[in-house]
Amino acid sequence: MNRIDRLSNLPDTILHHILSLLSTREAGRTCVLAKRWVNLWASLPSLVLDSKGNESNFEHFVNRVFRLRESLSVVSSILPLALPGSIFRCESLEELMLDVPYPGIEPIPDLRPKSISLSRLRRLDINAVVTLYDDFMVKLMSGCALLEELSLRLCKLEFSVIPSDVLKRLLIGSCDHSDMIYIHTPNLLCLELYGALLGGYTFKDMVLWSRQRLNFKVSWMNMIISGAIPGTMPMCSEPFQMLRILNCMERWCR
């Protein structure tokens, strides 16, 4: 009598729920159960890619995941090593969140992909101790025509300009940079800056900004602690119709 594999006959939604209870590596091991399971784990809606315990094969594992995924929409990565270039060439990707902890080495590693082609990307969040150069920003803006949200935290910024006609939300927090950075984002709706180097930015197209509602959030507490309070803010020279300046003191008063 032939046994019926009832588990494999379940719909993908149920099998995905079962696999979601496992770690990504554990889910990957289910590929040996039956033909139905070979690449099922790679189609999970959410994958956690973690190099702990097997760093030597991690890059190969990540590249394999991206080869198997054809309709990836959101990636949240914790990758304490060189990022595989395939991440920056996933055409269906809509959100990319990179969380790269400090590797404990000097110099700080660079984030310099050979190319960036993310035609559907709308949100990019880089929370990483990495260095970003002019070529990265040029490739990012030319390869991400729909990018609306950009967050940079803990990065070392070696670029001179953020140019975008579509960017709507920009956050720069606790980033290190020695030169002035020009922010050229005429359609920006929300700007949030925090850290000690708040005076190191110059804003272009302020006339266009003044015609719309702009939320400008400044973390004054970080500057008070660091003793780096600027005498003037370079963006306050234009007559805004609606400008909301929010400070972070409220979080200390709750």
TrEMBL record:
<dbReference type="InterPro" id="IPR053197">
    <property type="entry name" value="F-box_SCFL_complex_component"/>
</dbReference>
<dbReference type="InterPro" id="IPR055411">
    <property type="entry name" value="LRR_FXL15/At3g58940/PEG3-like"/>
</dbReference>
<dbReference type="InterPro" id="IPR032675">
    <property type="entry name" value="LRR_dom_sf"/>
</dbReference>
<dbReference type="Pfam" id="PF24758">
    <property type="entry name" value="LRR_At5g56370"/>
</dbReference>
<protein>
    <submittedName>
        <fullName>F-box/LRR-repeat protein</fullName>
    </submittedName>
</protein>
<feature type="domain" description="F-box/LRR-repeat protein 15/At3g58940/PEG3-like LRR">
    <location>
        <begin position="80"/>
        <end position="198"/>
    </location>
</feature>
<dbReference type="Pfam" id="PF00646">
    <property type="entry name" value="F-box"/>
</dbReference>
<dbReference type="InterPro" id="IPR053781">
    <property type="entry name" value="F-box_AtFBL13-like"/>
</dbReference>
<feature type="domain" description="F-box">
    <location>
        <begin position="7"/>
        <end position="46"/>
    </location>
</feature>
<dbReference type="InterPro" id="IPR001810">
    <property type="entry name" value="F-box_dom"/>
</dbReference>
<dbReference type="InterPro" id="IPR036047">
    <property type="entry name" value="F-box-like_dom_sf"/>
</dbReference>
